[in-house]
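QA checklist item 7 of 12: single-chain prediction sanity check.
[x] sequence parsed
[x] length recorded as 269
[x] structure emitted
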Amino acid sequence: MGPRRLSAPRQRTVWLSGRFLSEARAHVPTNCLTLSFGVGLYETLRLVHGVAPLLELHLTRLRDACSRLGLRLKQRDWAEVLAELATRNRIRNGRAKILIGDGFELATCTQLPRGLADERRKGISLMSAPLERNLAQFKDTSRLALWAAERSLGAEVLLVSARRQLLETTRANLFVVSERGLETAPATRVLPGVARGLILELARGMGVTVQLRAPSLRQRARWLEVFVSNALRGIRPVRRIDALTFAAPSASSLTRRLQRGLDERMGLS
C-alpha cells in the first residue's frame, strides 16, 4: 500500500458583495482606493452560538463612519449573512469581520484568538509607545502605524501621548480605576469602542463616577486597577505597563464587576 495522501486544507468561505465564495475565488477591484490608499472601514464582532449579539451597535457606528467618509453601505441583512457565514465555516463561537471598501463589501469569519481565556482571567502585559492614531474616531483599514508598533514590540501596544497620557492600545480602549472613579480617554482622542460605550453605561448604572480624560502617568500612584476592553475580547485586566505592575483584580473589584456585566451584554453568560 502506498503512502497515505494528505487531504488539502479546507478553504474558508467568505462573503463578498452578496456572494458566498471560497477565499481563492474572492477578488476585489485592483484599482480601488482600499488597495491604493487604505480607504476602508471595518467592524470586528464576537460570534456567540453563531450570532453577533452586539451587531446593531456595530452597524450604528459603521453607518455613521461610512456617511462621514463617503463610503457606500448598502442595505443588507447582516445578521443573516453572518449566521450563514458561521454555519459554512463551522464556527459557533468566534469572530466575524465586516469590511466596507471602495466598491466592495467583505465579511469573514474565523476562530477566536488563542489564549483569550487566559488573558481575561490572568490579565495582560503592555509595552508602551509614543503614538497617537490619526482619525482615531474611525475603525479604518489604514493600520500601518499600529501594525508596525506591534511588530516592533512583539505584542499589543499601549499608545501614549507626548504629555505621557494613556490613550488606548492598538486593539482596545483603556480604563483606569482610582479612588476618584473610572477614567478613560474621551472619544475625540480614541476609537469610540462598542464595548467602551457599554462599560460607561454599566459603570454609571453602578453609581461609579466616570471621568472622560486620558489617565496621566504622573498620577499612577493613585491607580487601583487598569483594564482594557473591546467587543471581541471583552474586558482584560492589565497586570503590567512597561516596568509598572498591578495586582490581580479580586472578584469584587470594579474590573471584575464590569467584566461580568459586559459578558452578559455580549451573551457570554
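[x] summary fact logged: The CA atoms of residues 136 and 189 lie 6 Å apart.
[ ] second reviewer sign-off
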